[in-house]
Structure formats: structure tokens, C-alpha cells
Amino acid sequence: MVKIQKERHAGNQKSTIKGSGRTIRRIWSYLADERNLLILVLLMIVASSALGLLGPFLIGWGIDKYFATGSTDGFSLLLIGLAAVYVMHSLSLWFQSYWMIGIAQKTVYIMRRQLFSKFHQLSIDFFNKRQHGELMSRITNDIENVSTTLNSSVIQVFSSVLTLVGTLAVMIWLSPMLTLVTMIIVPLMFLGMKWITSRTGKLYKEQQGRLGEMNGYIEEIISGQKIIKSFSQEPQVIEEFRIKNQRLKESGYWAQTLTGFIPKLMNMLNNLSFTIVATVGGFFALKGYVTIGTIVIFSEYSRQFTRPLNDLSNQFNTLLSAVAGADRVFDIIDTEEEAVDEKGAVPLPNMIGKVEFKDVSFSYEKGGDTVSNLNFSAQPGETIALVGPTGAGKSTIINLISRFYEPEQGLILFDGHDSKKITRDSLRKQMGFVLQDSFLFQGSIRENIRYGRLDATDEEVVKAAKAANAHFFIHRLPKGYDTELSQDDAGISQGQRQLLSIARAILADPAILIMDEATSSIDTITELKIQEALQHLLKGRTSFIIAHRLNTIKNADQIIVIESGKIVEKGSHEELLAKKGFYHELYTSQLEKNILLKP
Amino acid sequence: MSIFSFVKPYRIPIAAALSLMLVELAVELIQPLLIAKIIDEGIVAKDLDTVIKWGGVMLGISLLAFVSGIANSFLAAHAGQSFGFDIRERLFSKVQSFSFTNFSHFSSSSLITRITNDVTQLQNTFFMSLRIALRAPLLVIGGIVMAMLVHVKLAMPFVIIIPPLLIFLIWIMTKAAGLFKSVQRRLDRVNGVMRENLVGMRLIKAFARGDYEGTRFEKSNDQLKNRTVFALRVTESTIPVLLLFMNLSVIVVLWFGKIDVQSGRVSVGEVVAIVNYAARITAAFSMFSWIIMVFSRSRASAERVMEVLNEGIDLEDTAGSQDGYEISAGEIEFDKVSFQFPNTNIPILDDLSFKISKGETVAVLGATGAGKTAMFQLIPRLYDVTSGEIRIDGRNIQELKLRSLREAIGYVPQESLLFTGSIKENLAWGKQNATEEELIEAAKDAQIHETIEKLPNQYDTLLGQKGVNLSGGQKQRLSIARALIKKPKILLLDDSTSALDLKTEAKLLLAIRNYDCTTVIITQKVSTAKDADKILLLEDGSLIGFGEHEHLLKSSSLYQEIYSSQFGEVKADW
């Protein structure tokens, strides 16, 4: 993979020609990775250009020699030679596009891969602030733009430049003075181009941005269909989409119109240049500076000179939108990796399971305090229950233990190691999670459970499913463990999803187990059964459990009661009850109902 | 319906754009004549005035071409962008009318790609067609006609070779359309993996499965690459092939030309002219093959777009459903309702019959996977029953307008789906024109007002996608508030208080009591259920108990079991 210098400011960079230049150079650095093939393509372009010229030349020569004179000596040889030239011409064309397609697609492949792996290095926070669909748009719509351009434009640009240089050389050789005259249009051309691109560059980036926005909106609306339908929000949603669609249309309209000007302008300047050459040339000829023959040849060449420029300008449309696309991809690639492991972080050795919080404070937004001055320690094998009202900060503690976020102050120690000095992956590999949102992937049930430990055998998967009490319902599905789960939830209930997540965590066999409302959607009878299994499972590992149903955590070694981000009570169930504090209040509120039941 | 129906509204700008393009083309054809004049009559004759005169004329007509070109840009961009706009809008509206069965036919990522990527493809092609596509066929036809005017017999090789080449082009185009369709399918897959990773990022990080996901992505990325490479290579091979045949036909022309020149039937100039036209036709042909690639891509995209537009909607207002009927009471009756999810053969609900009276509160209890949520989703017709009938206020819900049915129902699903936007906007989903007081009232009843007040921007606080910056309990209460603001006749709470602590939950349920509506609550907690007027017990999709708490505690063994799982042993004599 290519090493890319980090450009932190890339996000707000202005899409001027300069900015585009930087992006193009960067795309180029990807291409440069395929240097050898690229050189071959270049050779093929040279060959095809030369052969393309050789054909007409041979014909011209042949007409002079054979048609005008009537000689037939070697005529068939000429035709055979011509055929050979044509075959080679086609072959060189074929090879250049064959290789170029390979290079271009490999480049976008690498860009896609880089973007994907970048996503994995970004913090959870990054994703919380962005729409999935908008991010997806960068992998499809934006990279797609780059792909299209690389395929068609690179060859075009190369051969145009080649022709340009060649023609220019001949022109200078013929008459430096007339060449200078022809060049009068070049500054005009640049002015025109600058005027257009300074606008279109921005517009294309805007267009891609709006396309991304729209992508994000569509994604969100599709995944929220249930709510949209049951609230009859279809008309409103369609209206909102219309606005986004309109905005996309507007920037697209101006981008397309303005880039459409480029070839027209070129054509115009072309003719202007020709007229100037003819007039000035005529004047020179009268004065005897140049011969008429030179002017005739020159007028032809000046057209030749502008033709590749014309081609280049024709490519501008795609080129600009590709630059805008690439820019948006690089924006992400350049985003700071907040979750990168600290310098010198080492893998955590196999854990015994001791977890300590020392004066830990943290807030999601700078300045606030979501949790503050947390102090507690979990001994190896202990079960710790986190209890408290909604929004007290329980999930935040879990987020800190799993290092989705880093504490602002204080230390978190795992087996005595400072969390900042160990790598995240090595820590998480020793943890098992059952999270609030039980996310399942598209794939079979077996694959989903196996996600906990990739090398688990089928028997182990079934064993874990049995322990999680999931085997019972899986077994009854027509395809059993091979039942394919789709992204929409049809066919499998929320509670069943939680059972599968639990099975997944059980299979992982972690040193630390984290269960955040893991059984909230599971009926209490099943929950009891799981708990029995868990009792067994929890032995020998440290576990953190968040649950609202207090009777599920009665057996915990330590119950930590949290209110407004602070630890208010700590101790076993009995100890806390005896204290008659906050926990007692919580517990009896549940009990009260029980008491009320009695006749 | 076909994609061309979207072109129709823009007939006039299209016609204008094409005419302007013809003006440009005409100027382009006249220019060589003018250049010849300038050289022959001006430069060679050393007549500077003539040079200036014809030069002026040339600048004049090129200015005309320039103006036409600029106007063409505006028109083509207008038509192209509007065309794309219309298709996107139709697609999105269509998707909004999709039932969940329809949704199961397309993955979300595929729908997204179709609405954006595929439409962009079509739009670009349309734009290109208006600007240049017509030139190629015109040049080819013009070239052949001119060549035949010069000398019919010598032009014969082209006349013979061009039809098979055209057939070849059409064949490649059909083939390529298929290839590009499979490219788009693979793009869907890459998109799909991407989307899953974005949605499940937390879990992936938690399990440290970045590498595993990387391999998975790599695989679909690799397939996409290989397919794209193959499709492009096939289409791009056409240029060399076409060139080769055209050029070989030139050799044939030369061969016969030589013979004919010798016998004096053809002049050398005629041979030169025909060879010249061959070069022009060949140039136009290579433009052709580029056009073909673009068109085959668009054809694939068009098909994918039309698949969505032509998808039959299987759940919509039934013919004869009455307009204007509003649910007033909120009495719910299930009559022998059976249900299974579309495209599956697992029965979820089996012969379910019960009646909930107006204003009652009913708790639904049952094991995981008993069919509670499925039962709920049938009421606002997110799915239709497989057999049987659901009646509200005595009317079969299939006879009601979907809109009036759903407007009377406040549905709070198990996972609280919130949207990017402010809290206020999210709450207003329930009622567009809700006043500040109504918002606050609903929020207070849902026990979320105080929490909102504590946020930095209160009701204007922005939520991330799916409400990511809120805790589970906060999300649940917000989605309850969103349903309450509707003042629904029927309130459906699908385990939507599971993340609330008991105190908050009790307050919330008490507040809901003041609403004039029939309330059905799915819950796991007996403590919640026992406060309801009635409890409905579900097991494996069948109704096994429906009655008051005391009654069920005596009669139902399942209920006893649930009860004891939460409060310890129940005495046998209860």
C-alpha cells in the first residue's frame, strides 16, 4: 500500500485548481505503484500513435509511387506491410486498454480497501456523528467516479499530451515566430479554463456531497420504515427527499452546464488561432519572412495542436467530478484516527481478570461530566452489577471498560496494566460482549454465533447455543443452524436475537464478560434458565452486568449503584439492603408491587 | 412502463438541444471549406484582405457555433438533470409505498445504489446523448453516402463490412449490458458489507473482528474488481476490432483501386477521396464503441431502476376501502388470525381470537419468539394477516384507508428508531403541527421532559442517526413521547419500557392512563402486567390465556411459572 502524507486540513481545503492538482497528484501516487505496467501502457500508447501515423503515411507514399506511375513492383508487398501495421496498431490499442483497465481497477480496489480499513480504525464517536448512508456513498458513488475517469481519461490524457508535444516540436522547428503567434491563445485558454474550473470544482464537490447526503437520507429512511409507515409519514418523507433531490439537481445542473462550456470555448479559440495564423502568416509571407508552404503546413499543424487540447478539455467533465470524488475519499482517509493505540502500547498478556477504576472521569462532550471520580475494583472472577436510573452512566462505564472511549482523567487498570499502555485489540480479544443492540450479520445462524470465536467447531457452536437457551428455537427452524438471517428482522424476534448474542459471547469464552441489558427482551422464564447456565459460565471470569430487573443481579459479588455519573453505593445485595439507601429504595419499589399482590 | 417515459416531458428542450447540436455540426462541416478558401485565395494569392475577410466570416460562424454550444449546454444540463431528478423521485416514492414483503426482495444497500448510483449513470448517459452521441451515426452515414457518391464500386468494401460490424456492436452491447448488470450486483454486495460494518461497528470493535471483516470485504471487493475488469475489457476490445476491420477494408479498396486505376475506370483522386472517407468513418466508429459502452452500462442501470418501479405492491389500500372513516373508539378484535412472514413457511401466529374493548389496557406476555411483536405489527398493517380478520371498531382493517388506520395508532416498536435531526423534529413525527405545549406535555408524560431540559440545547438538541447519542432508556422514552403526541386511539407499546428503571416506568404507565385510548403493552414484567385490565398470554403463536391477573394466576400454569420466575414460588392454592 502506498504511503500517503497526512494532510489534516484536507477536509476544508478549497477546490481550486491548486487543490485539484494536489488531489490529482495523490491519485497519481496510487497509479505509480503499478509503474511497470504503466510504462507498458505508455509504450503501447507511443506505439499506437506511431502506427496510427504510419498507416496513412504508407498509403500516401503508396499512392504516389504506384497509383500515379502505374508501377506494380512490390505493391502487394506494400499492402501486406500495411496489413501488418494495422494489425499491430489494433494490438497495441488492445493491450493499452487491457492493461490500463487492470491498473485503474486495482487502484480503486485499493482505495476502497483503504477506506474500509480506515473505517475500522476510527472511533465509535466518528460513526455516531455521521450517517451510514453518507459514508457508504463515498465507497460507491465517489470511488465509482474515480474508476470511470481512470479508465477512460488516462489513456486519452497520455496520447493527447504525446501528440501535443510532438506537434509543438514540429511547429517550433518550422517557424518559432509563427509558433509564438499560435500560442497567443494559450493564455486566453488558461483564463477561460480557470474561470470555469474555479466554479465547477466547487460545484462538483458540492454535488458529490449532496449525493452523499441523499444517500444518507435514503439509508436512514429505509431502515426506519417501520416508524415511517406506522406514523403515515410517507408524504413528509417524500417531500424532504424532494428538497434534497432538488438541491442535488441544482448543483449538478450548474456543474454540468459550466463544464459543457469548455469544449465550446476551445473550439472558438481554435478558430481564432487559425485566423490569427492565417492573417499574421499572410502578412509575414508578404514581407517574405516565411514561405507560403510553411503557412499551409502550419495552419494544419495549429489545428493538430489544438485537437489534443480539445480532447483534454472534453475529459474535464469526468476529471473534475472524479477529483471531487477522490477528495471526499481522501477526506476520510485523512481523518485523525482517534482510536489508534498509544505509542509503545503492548499486547495485554492473558488476563486473570482484575479490573480497576481509579478516579476516572469522562464526558461525551467536552466540559460536561457524564461520569466523574469513579473508583472501584473488580477482583478476578467477580460478578459486578451496575445499577442505577436510566441515563446515570452505566453504559458509559461499559464504554470505558471496552475502551470505545478513553477517560479524560484517571486510570483504568487491567491486571494492573494501565489501559493506555496496552493495545485495544489484545484487550477486546479477551472480552466477551452482549450489547444492548443485538446486532446480527447477514449470514446463517451458525456463522453469527461463530463470530464469537472463528475457529469454533460446529459442536462447540451448538453447545454455546444450548447454554444460551437458543438451541431450542434454532432447532425448530426448518433449516436449523443454517437458517439465513437477513438484515430485516422478519422471522426472528428481538428476544431470540439476544439469545444468539449471548451464545456468541459464551462461545468467545472470554476472561471478562460484559452484558449490557443483555436479557431485557427475553422473557423471565427463559432468563432464569440462561442465568442458571450463566452461573456456571461466570465462574472464573470477571463479569460486568447491567440489568434493570434487580432480581437478576441479586447474586452478584458486588453491586455498584450509580446516580448522575457518580458511585453512590457499593457492596453485596445484603449489605446494600441493610444500608437502607438508594439500592434499598430501588429494590423495594419492585418488591412493593409484589407485596401488593398478596390477597 | 419503460425508462423512456421519463424522457417524454423534456421533448422540447431535447429537440432544441439537438437542433443546436446540428448547427454546431454544420459549422464544423463548413469550416474546412473556409480554411481552403483562406489558404487558396488569401495566403497563396498573397491577398491579405481576403484572408481578413474570410477569417472574419470564420470567426463569425464559429461565434455562432459557440453560442449554440453554450445554449446546448444549458438545455442538455436542464433536460439531463431533470430527467435524473424525476427518476430519483419516482423511485423514492415507489420505495415509500413498498410493503415489508417488497422490501425483502431488495437489500437496503441495493435500493440505495439504485436510487443514487444507477440513476447518476442514466443521467450522464442522457446528457451525453444530447451533446455528442448523435454525431457518430451521422458521421458514419454521411461518410458512406459521400464515399458512394464518389465511386459506388470502390465504396463497396465499406458497404459490405459495415453491416456485420454493426451487428457485432449490437451483440457486444447486449453482452455488455448483462456484464454490467452483474457489476452493479457486485457493487450492491460491496455496499452491503460496508453497510453492515457501519451499522455493526460497535460489535465488530468489541469482538476485535476488524481483520475478519476485512477479509470479508476483500472478497466482495475483489469480485467487484474482477467483474468490472472483465466487463470493461470486453467492451473496450471493440475499438481495436472495429479499427482492424475498417483498416483492412481500406487495403481491399487500395487493391481494387489499383486495378481500376490501371484500367482507367477510376481516377487517383477518387481513390484518395474514398480512403479519406474511410478514415472519417473509422474515427466515428471508435466514438461509436465508446458510446456503446456507456449505453450498455446504462441499460443495466435502467433495468435495475425499472425492477424497482415495476415491483408489484402487495399491501396497499384495498379497492373499495372507505375514505374519511375515522377510528373513534379503538376496540380491537382478532378473529381467527393466522400469520406467517412472507416467503417463509414458519407459522408465527395460529388461529388467534380475542377482543379488547375501548379504553382497556391489556398486557401481552409470552416467551421469546411467541409471536408478540408479529401480532402487534398486524394491527397497523405493517404486514397483512395470512388468514382470518382483524377488526377495529367492528370494521375489518383491510377496509380502512391505511392512512386513517395508522393515524389512529400510536406504535412504539421494540427498538426505538429515531432519526437524524433535533429532538423537536423527532417528536413532531407524531404530529406535524404540534405546538410547543403539546410537545412538552407528551414529553412530560413520557418522563423525558426533565432529561431533555438538562441537555445543552433542550428540545433543539440534535440527535445522531438512530439517536446514537442517547441512552437506551432515553431513546425508548422519546419514541413513546412521539407516539403520545398523536393522541392515538390505540397505543401499542412493544416492550418499550425495558430499559427504564421501575420507578420511571411506573410513572410513565400512570401518565398513559390519562390518555383516552386502548393500550396494549408487550412486557416481560409481571409487575407491569398486573396493573393492566387484562393479560393476554401467548405461547408459540397461540392464545393460551386471556383474563385478569388473579384469574390467570389461578388458572394458567405458564403464568404461574412466569410469576415465580420473578417473585419466587407461588403457593399452589393460589
Within the largest sheet of chain A, what's the order of strands?
Answer: 6-9-10-3-11-12
The parts of chain A where pLDDT drops under 50 for at least 5 residues are: 1-17, 592-599
Distance between the termini of chain A: 74 Å
If you consult CATH, what is the topology of the largest domain in chain B? ABC transporter transmembrane region fold
What is the name of the CATH architecture of the largest domain in chain B? Up-down Bundle
Coarse structural class of chain A: alpha/beta
Q: Structural class of the secondary structure composition of chain B? A: alpha/beta
- What is the correct CATH architecture of the largest domain in chain A? Up-down Bundle
Alpha-carbon Rg of chain B, integer: 36 Å
Fourth-level CATH superfamily of the largest domain in chain B: ABC transporter type 1, transmembrane domain
- For the secondary structure, the number of strands of chain A is 12
How far apart lie the N and C ends of chain B?
67 Å
Strand content of chain B: 5-15%
The CATH class of the largest domain in chain A is identified as Mainly Alpha
Shape of chain B: elongated
Describe the structure concisely.
Chain A is α/β, with parallel strands linked by helices and 599 residues long.
List the helices and strands and how they pair.
The complex is a heterodimer of chains A (599) and B (574).
Chain A: H1 17-31, H2 35-67, H3 75-121, H4 124-128, H5 132-174, H6 176-182, H7 185-223, H8 225-230, H9 234-287, H10 292-333, E1 355-362, E2 371-378, E3 383-387, H11 394-401, E4 409-414, E5 417-418, H12 424-428, E6 431-434, E7 443-444, H13 445-450, H14 458-467, H15 471-476, E8 484-485, H16 494-508, E9 512-516, H17 524-538, E10 542-546, E11 558-563, E12 566-571, H18 573-579, H19 582-597
Parallel strand pairs in A: 3-10, 3-11, 6-9, 9-10
Antiparallel strand pairs in A: 1-2, 1-4, 4-5, 7-8, 11-12
Chain B: H1 11-43, H2 48-96, H3 100-105, H4 108-133, H5 135-150, H6 152-199, H7 201-206, H8 210-236, H9 238-263, H10 268-309, E1 332-340, E2 347-356, E3 361-366, H11 372-378, E4 387-392, E5 395-396, H12 402-407, E6 409-412, E7 421-422, H13 423-427, H14 436-445, H15 449-454, E8 462-463, H16 472-484, E9 490-494, H17 502-513, E10 518-522, H18 526-529, E11 534-539, E12 542-547, H19 549-555, H20 557-567
Parallel strand pairs in B: 3-10, 3-11, 6-9, 9-10
Antiparallel strand pairs in B: 1-2, 1-4, 4-5, 7-8, 11-12
Helix pairs in contact in B: 1-2, 2-4, 4-6, 4-10, 5-6, 5-10, 6-8, 6-9, 6-10, 9-10, 14-16, 19-20
